[in-house]
């Protein structure tokens, strides 16, 4: 089993399919509300750049450097975002979940925790990872909060880690979940996805 494989993964809320050009039209629709590609601290493809972004993911997948998935909302059957495994390091049993974006309408719903549950379950239970990383821009407070809510712990900040196309410098915040933490993280994510209990 390769870290770069991208098999279909599913639960009652989302289905993760290997990303390909058949998802492009849905992803263009998903990215338009809020013009997410204009967010300066996030890397999200524009509608016009979506096909090229998918091609780049597929090229990296073919080279064994990345495992890309389209995130399908099972209620609508439409692709609402993308997530990948990257920085694959099977010799040390580590990988990063990243290059993730969700359309505005899917943000704040159960789609993100349901997606992360599937990706973390594969990483720890199928691939035998000892650690899974998440990285985000220092100024992306929404992403940092979402990662912390998963149960990940902040490892540190890589200062001036990247030079961005606009000339600014990205300080990268690094989080991780360890294999020994996975049972508690899994329980927390599973509880978040349960329907609310009705009271009398």
Textual characterization of the structure:
The structure is a single chain. By secondary structure, the protein is α+β, with helices and mostly antiparallel strands. The chain has one domain (about 10-190): 3-Layer(aba) Sandwich (Aminopeptidase), CATH 3.40.630. It is about 30% helix and about 30% strand. It has five helices and eight strands; from the N terminus they run ββααβββαβαββα. The protein has helices at about 25-30, 50-60, 110-125, 140-150, 180-190, and strands at about 10, 15-20, 65-75, 80-90, 95-100, 130-135, 155-165, 170-180. It has an eight-stranded mixed beta sheet with strand order 1-2-3-4-5-6-8-7, with helices on both faces. The longest helix is centred in the middle third of the chain and has 16 residues, at about 110-125. The model has no long low-confidence stretch (mean pLDDT about 95).
Attribute tags:
alpha+beta, single chain, Aminopeptidase, 8 strands, 29% helix, 8-stranded mixed sheet, 200 residues
Low-pLDDT runs: none
Strand order of the largest sheet: 1-2-3-4-5-6-8-7
Strand percentage? 25-35%
Average residue-wise pLDDT: 93
CATH fold title: Aminopeptidase
Give a topology summary.
Layout: E1 9-10, E2 14-18, H1 24-31, H2 50-62, E3 67-73, E4 78-89, E5 94-102, H3 111-126, E6 131-137, H4 141-150, E7 153-163, E8 169-178, H5 182-192
Parallel strand pairs: 5-6
Antiparallel strand pairs: 1-2, 2-3, 3-4, 4-5, 6-8, 7-8
């Amino acid at each position: 089993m390769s870290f770069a494989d991208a098999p279909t993964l599913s639960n009652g809320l989302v289905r993760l399919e290997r990303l390909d050009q058949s998802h492009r039209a849905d992803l263009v629709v998903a990215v338009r509300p809020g013009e997410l590609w204009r967010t300066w601290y996030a890397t999200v493809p524009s509608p016009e750049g979506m096909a090229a972004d998918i091609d780049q993911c597929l090229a990296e997948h073919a080279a064994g450097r990345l495992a890309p998935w389209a995130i399908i909302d099972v209620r609508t059957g439409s692709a609402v975002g993308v997530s990948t495994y990257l920085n694959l390091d099977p010799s040390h049993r580590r990988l990063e979940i990243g290059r993730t974006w969700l359309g505005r309408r899917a943000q704040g719903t159960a789609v993100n925790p349901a997606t992360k549950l599937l990706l973390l379950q594969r990483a720890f239970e199928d691939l035998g990872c000892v650690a899974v990383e998440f990285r985000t821009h220092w100024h992306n407070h929404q992403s940092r909060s979402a990662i912390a809510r998963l149960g990940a712990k902040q490892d540190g900040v890589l200062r001036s880690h990247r030079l961005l196309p606009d000339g600014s410098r990205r300080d990268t915040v690094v989080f991780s979940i360890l294999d020994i933490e996975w049972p508690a993280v899994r329980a927390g994510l599973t509880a978040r996805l349960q329907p609310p209990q009705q009271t009398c």
